[in-house]
Fold this sequence. Notes:
With 216 residues, the protein is an alpha/beta fold.
Amino acid sequence: MIKIAPSILSADFSKLGNQVETLEAYGADIIHLDVMDGRFVPNITFGAPIVKSIRNFTKLPFDVHLMIEEPSRYIEDFVKAGADIITIHYEADKHIDRTINYIKSFGVKAAVALNPGTPVSNITDLIPNLDMVLIMSVNPGFGGQKYINYASNKIKEVKNLSLKYNNDLLIEVDGGIDTHNIKQVVSCGANVIVAGSAVFRQNNIQQNISELKRGF
């Protein structure tokens, strides 16, 4: 089953709780929360208090994507705020195996994200212990970017590793996905699609999610 994970980075933050309710009502499967610290990426978004403030507006799983340095310092804060999946970047953690196990010790799912320039081979040994891999199909830090075509090959690589080592692995893709390329991304092996601009475009959430789902 292919899951749509709208990124609230493109939402109207003045009515964030209501927008999360709307996403659930119109068929979203996961809420994707992009946390940026201004160090790992050149932008700052929000922290655990915002995640906590919207937790009671939906029963959908929260995928907290930590685009931050030293993510292990903040794992417990985001678990307490309501995270169901915590995604950390391979490039941001010197002791990534330890952090993965730390995340899982709280009873939540652990995921690793790869920037466009990071080879999939770097995480081969981690695959059996992961719940999800996130392939970044844009350079992280800003919404509205164009899909990087070679990300498709990386999705296929992760899919092959999944078939070999972890059949339950979720393969998430984030960046530049819309109705024009979602079928291609899914055909490569992705089963969780992050979409920000494509979901919130013209504030027509219901139609946009419906069109994305029809696209694959």
